[in-house]
Amino acid sequence: MIWVWTSFIAFVLLILTLDLGVFHRRAHAVTIKEAIGWSAVWVTLGLAFAVFVYYAYEAQWFGLGAVADAADGLMNDGATAAEKYLTGYIVEKSLSIDNIFVITVLFGFFAVPPIYQHRVLFWGILGALLMRGVMIALGVKLITEFHWVLYLFAVFLILTAIKMLVVKTEHTDPNKNVIVRLTRRLFPVTARFHGEHFIVRAGAPASYESEIPGSIAMPDEVVDKAQPGTLLLTPLALALVMVETMDLIFAVDSIPAIFAITADPFLVFTSNVFAMLGLRSLYFALAGMVDKFRYLKVSLALVLMVVGVKMLLAEWLKLEIGKHFNFYLLALVLLILAAGVFGSQIAERRALSRLTNR
């Protein structure tokens, strides 16, 4: 079993190294066309991995599928494992879209130049993968030893869905974020960008004048009087801190959602990894269009609710529909997301039509 984990992690590290060290070695503003192309690459990789999942679990390579899934008590053969992986991948991918809305606000607040946004997202997602790996390991252990935890997760998901539907989301002011305030208190922060660096020494030439509020950074006169050589955090570092913080918050919702589908650690981890790997490209592809998808948040809330209900009724669904009931869950999730996208497009066209007819 350890071989498959080692190989997968090595594969992820390889493609991340190629991504930053070869394809995005030079900082540049990512165009929508480039973002769509890379999004297609990441989605293709994520979907293609389902083929490996099918054959690995069907033949029980590396011991995969040899132990009953703690989420539903079923043995995962090739078809069942592929269904769970794809369902988990789609759910995690869709929930990660909500993250894009927040990242857009954060980059705007910190005035992060487009040329450096990819770098922040790269390291932010790398940190997010590490955090999620720890959370998944703890979650699997809890579910294996205390199956009733699944019902707590289910109730949590349903309540979160209701909150998303009825509570109006307000943009969070990073000035009030505890993590940012603590970071600012522990480390001196310059208000100036220094290329793609997260940390610089006092006296280093700035490359970009920041527009972020002065309360986030140390006053310029304090930074200017810092001893030469003193380590300073740049606005990029604060943006990275906020991206990591927000992903941790979103992970609290998304990790229980995947456990509604499977508690197999390999399926949980790999579906999360592939969903997160494409988040950067998806951000650049959708960042300028987030306001046009007005019903997407409603769709995401309904997905959470469906997943939570499925978690509560898993035993009954298994008896009534059969062991492949996750296939129907996958179809329902795709239908809800498609309805949100098409509904948003129709509403957008009607709004434009009203403006044109005035």
Automatic annotation (TrEMBL):
Gene Ontology CC: membrane
Domain of life, source organism: Bacteria
Keyword Nuclease recorded: no
Signal peptide location: none
Main location: membrane
Residue ranges crossing the lipid bilayer per the database entry: 6-23, 35-57, 95-113, 120-140, 146-166, 231-252, 258-283, 295-313, 325-344
Record InterPro entries: Integral_membrane_TerC, Integral_membrane_TerC_rswitch
Cell location: Membrane
UniProt keyword list: Membrane, Transmembrane, Transmembrane helix
Membrane topology: Multi-pass membrane protein
PANTHER family, A to Z: MEMBRANE BOUND PREDICTED REDOX MODULATOR, THYLAKOID MEMBRANE PROTEIN TERC, CHLOROPLASTIC
Family label: Belongs to the TerC family.
Entry protein name: Tellurium resistance protein TerC
Organism of derivation: Candidatus Glassbacteria bacterium RIFCSPLOWO2_12_FULL_58_11
